[in-house]
Protein 1
Amino acid sequence: MGSNNLRQLNIDNINPHVREAKYAVPGELAVRSEEYRALLAAGSTKLPFKQVISANIGNPQQLDQKPLTFFRQVLSILENPALLEKSDVLVNQLDYKPDVLERAKRLLAAVGSVGAYSASNGAPAIRQSIADFLERRDGFPADQANIYLSAGASSGVNTLLHVICANDKSGILVPIPQYPLYTASLSVLNAACVPYLLDEHRNWGTSLETIKAAREKAKAEGINVRAIVIINPGNPTGASLPEEDIRAVIEYASQERLVILADEVYQTNVFVGEFISFKRMLRQMQQEQPGKFDQVELASLHSVSKGMVGECGHRGGYFELVGFDPEVQAEIYKFVSIMLCAPVIGQCLVELMVNPPREGEPSYELYTKEYNAIFNGLRERATALHKAFEQMEGVECGAPQGSMYLFPTIKLPPRACEAAAAEGRTPDEFYCMRLLEATGVCVVPGSGFGQKEGTLHFRTTFLAPGTEWVGSIVKFHNDFMNQYR
């Protein structure tokens, strides 16, 4: 008898909902790219490229985005408070500014030790700092009691979906294309994903008609549609929603008693127009029409992983609840308590994100210089990528608006589609695999995010340093089109 037969677990008897979940971002292409990276590190010269560009995932510091100095200096003291005993060395020899030391002392007073558990919903002083930020951002008060620290926004999404989805008939409206966290989480929960298509011809804006049609179809199938997910700015599309789209969603959610899940982790990555939070717009609409929107339930999420912070590995984030029933909120608190608390060092990083150095403080000049350099670098690379796509046959892509991604449409020759089918791949997967093999640039096929039937896309970040790798994509595309024409 083989040793495999002695094991309790096998692929056929584990949780089937985990098996069925799909999560394309770290999929086959990413695995292959890491194999190539290992070969290059071992000195291989057999590959047709000299580096792997991981444009498949929004992981800024993997792609050489430098941490913000103020943040890391404060964190270094939080991890090793004994450094405060050598404050003269920190200031005079290591160029720590006095406000770095003061912030570290304040955070240590708030949490005691980053090695200790906090309150399950996060340290009260940090939640208050977030509430103050939200009031500055939106112009409306926020209550720290409604704020929950989480291990990145993904953990917050997981919490909220667990509470909202009561059974297999619970449905969540999810934008297509979407970040696959939502569809994968709903698969694991054995709940219903109710997809609604974004409008590519309106810069990937929301279409109320499409949302209504998706909900009505689900209702006819016996699905209890309970919430709608909005990702703004968009992932994978990079779209930044205008005010009229946000108002329309809130109006519809109010009419149909839908919880709004506003994923706003890219709120500082906006190149066109301004970011408008769902909280701000909801409060404005409540002022304009008193009483009408008082029962709207809104959960909005933010994270230290994106923006100019890019601290994905520290797993810091939060969500704010607006309009939730107190008894439901108590159950949400219980759920987060099961996991004890979010990483406390991540909580402290959230505080730094929402309360960075201000004008007149010693660290402000360097912080602003670093922050602006990251923002301008992202915009420069986004523009370079977009210009490259404009040159490429059969590729269409809207101008970059926000987040860290572009999501171009690609039209491939019939022979390429036939070659893809022969390999058992979708045409966009086939294209992305050939791109990786030829250039070392790893992107994600549009099928991993969902796309309108009959269309093909891929998602690429623009986080990698420099723009020379963009030229390799253009050359590959021309060669690919000529090969399969």
Protein 2
Amino acid sequence: MAKKVVATLKKEGGVKYAKIIKAVKNPTTGAYTFKEEIILQDEVNSALKN
């Protein structure tokens, strides 16, 4: 389960970035933690598949 943040991080004429937040389940306790990443906007789909 992951979601893409609505606001993307970008500069005029530069590389576009996006911030994604993933819910990661702990196998021992079953609790969820959230992992945040800032990645290139072109790599969003491949990062969410993992």
Protein 3
Amino acid sequence: MPIPDASTLKKRATIIAAMREIVAFDNVIDDIDALRPYESDGLTAYRQPPMLVVLPETVEQVSAVLRWCHREAVRVVPRGSGTSLSGGALPLADAVLLGLGKFKKIIEVDYEERIAVVQPGVTNLAITQAVEGRGFYYAPDPSSQIACSIGGNVAENSGGVHCLKYGLTTNNVLGVELVLMDGEIVRLGGRHLDPAGLDLLGVVVGSEGLLGVVTEVTVRILPKPQTARAILLGFPDAERAGACVAQVIAEGIIPAGMEMMDKPAIHAAEAFVNVGYPLDVGALLIVEVDGPAAECDHLVAEIDRIAGENDAVTRRVSNNDQERLSFWAGRKAAFPAVGRLAPDYYCMDGTIPRRRLPEVLSRMEQLSEEYGLAVANVFHAGDGNLHPLILYDANKPGELAKAEEFGNDILRLCVEVGGVLTGEHGVGVEKRDLMPEMYNEIDLEHQHRLKSAFDPLLLLNPGKVFPQLHRCAEMGRVHVHGGQHRFPEIPRF
């Protein structure tokens, strides 16, 4: 992480006093013990207490906090519910951590326009709960949806088990209210379809808190499908399950969701929720289709046929909604369930072409043997978004470092086969120094320039996304003349 700025730390008391003039006294947290809950996010391997936490309650307060910090050159780290799995909300020792937890109102629901306007602290699941009485729901459904906030979903472009058919956050957000680092309040998008001009909304969704602080989100809500049915398919191994996934998509079928778990994950999930998963299979697919009843019947029959052609040994179709939800219960609880297999696990997030799934799973098994660390696979099979869970024991010296390197090799493998470093968890700190595996100098230069257009002083969420050794030259802090650096012997990405 960036080296703490000594001059900022010296004026901590002044910063605290200034923040208490903007927000309520109790909405500034500066006691060291009270700061502990904010020292990490979902990537708990990395942690450090923030300098202080500020909890604004209005857009005007957010604007005033950012304006003051911009004037005084104080760094700011935005934070939602803290469920990020890539270190995206990891605080800095010399930064104000700006928590949006008090922004939890559903401002408006318009069923005719099929939109909801919500504040960023509203949880993902709360949107669906607010509209389901009228037969609507919000489609993106990450496994952490009971806790993760919509503002964090926007920052990371979160997905979920139904993103295959209905898209990720970026496909379901119509507009945002954004406060820039200098305190300016802007609106991007709105109730309408895509506006003319630059797609700034598309830039902000998935920008990981680097460009501005989201204070309001307009999302698309959808009518609940007439029928939804789930199919539970067991296979002898992950390779044949992967081949089934590829064939389903190749034949033009787009399920509402298609999820896979390998044997360790199956056993952990079944022991955790006891929903009747088969324990004698090497891989499990959960496939859901929705729409008119006749369409669902046809698709279920087609998927059943394809599964048989790929040597499925277990085939169960849900007979009612309760059974369908039970199929999903294990998948939704897979991450906490796997936590029972080892003292610690490291959750990865990479995306690959579907056709390479059998090959990648096989190579991951080889890597597991090489590193001597077990891995449980839980992932969105339909769109190739992998979530390997590397099992380790942080109390054993060197095991965390070994797990990190194992994870790095998985992500390098994803890029090697034509995939990308992340599908929905973001880059954050975790994948920051792997960015050159995927992007060249020109790519990174343009990303830096975009960041600078929104935040010229680089005060918002520093230390995330951009590789450390690349930063100085791209930010103009190293003079480059005629393409030549002053110190060419220094390694650079």
Protein 4
Amino acid sequence: MEAVNDFPFWLRAQHLLNFVLIGMLIRSGIEILSSLPRLWWRQDCAPGTEWLKFTKRELPKEEGVYTSLMDEKAVHPLLSLPGRENIGLGRHWHGLSVMLWVLNGVIYVILLFATGLWRRIIPTSWDVFPEAWDSLKTYLSFDVPDISHFQPYDALQMLGYTFVIFILAPFMMLTGVAMAPAVRGRFPRFVKMLGGHQGARSLHFIGMIMMAGFIVMHVSLVFLVHRDRNLVNMVFGGAQIEVSNARAAQAMVIMVAVIVAVAVFWIALSYWSLADRVRAQRFTAGFTEIGRKIFLNWLRPQGAKKTAYTDDDISEFHWTNGLPPTEEESELWVQARERNWAGLTITVRDDINDVEKQLTIDDLKALPRHSYIATHTCMQGWSATSRWTGVRLTDLMSVLGPRPEGARYLLAESYGLAQKMYDNRPREPFYAAIDLDTMEEEESIMAYERNGHEIEDYLGAPARLRVESNHGYKHVKWVSRVMWVHDYADYGDGRGGTREDSALQAFNGRI
């Protein structure tokens, strides 16, 4: 018989919750990665420059012939959350899990210091390093350190816990938020310090591998090193609990049952999401919007103050998501392209009062000109840096006069169609709505030039929306109409845009 160190209920409960949330994070992370199963260090994601890929598909070298949606891979719901090419829901589940994981971690650290249990995890002597080295050599020899080395953890465990809790976890948070357009627009030097969007994405993946490796090692050692003691501690806690064969067997049954129950819960989340994807989108996007309102919505791009990016940062290659309209999709756009856009107009409309004006591309270019360098990011993961030139949306809409009473959103429509609809109905004209605060940002423009020349057809010629604080699904290409609206719920499926309708993304594209 042996008395063991105290493991209070809050500590055991938070470990269990952390296990559940880490699993959700990794599974939803797999879904996100499967939407573009390649990793780069280069910001332009040029074909053939990946440092790691999870697909055998070879990318064409020519720009504008291969979309990122074509590269998406379907993953089984047993492995990912939710699986089956549902990047929108995968991103929502990832965001929800992050919020709960961070909250759980903050509470854990507070209680750790409030109860004095931090001394069991954080080393207070340099002796921990030679002791950890001795433990590592013991493990590598397939032996087990004596029980006397565990108080309740040995030196190697202490260093591992300290690294994961106070270094790896914050690293994952920082690299995660660095991929948010709102953060990049407000703190461009921070993102550039991490290697830009692709650096942050690759580092985040490496961190995930390290976290997963730690978990596998941690759980394995629970069952391989002084198993009876570990299981009794983790299940029953309490300094007065005695380790006996019967108690250890009881703890083993409970532990295995809990692990099985958590795995069933992970898989059930996937199938619950797939059973009614709109319901899952409402729940997850509604929950994660709380985090966006608290941490992101107040972040505004630096605009003219931004000096982090220069012409030297402009990308050599630019991906696309969506191909130019065909004659079947928009005969008007195709014919105008053949005439170098002569006769093509963009409608500027007040949909509240039924007032509108038609602007040609020359009319657009006659308005005040605005230019800046920005990194475009797709919610699937690719990026490219360009100099965009056009007219600010505030100047564009001023051609109708003062903002009409009751206008709450700006909605842009495209000559092009959605690539696909999640429910397989006929493809619909692409559109996106943004709130007025976003519309008024300095880097929200109707662009007609990229890198000093007219925008390429595949990137949205002759004019496209640029909303740099949001991901690319808000940047409508081949714009046909821009209008004041009272409520985006009156358009499309009422979710605020085609990618919200067709891929169940969030209306708020700031992360």
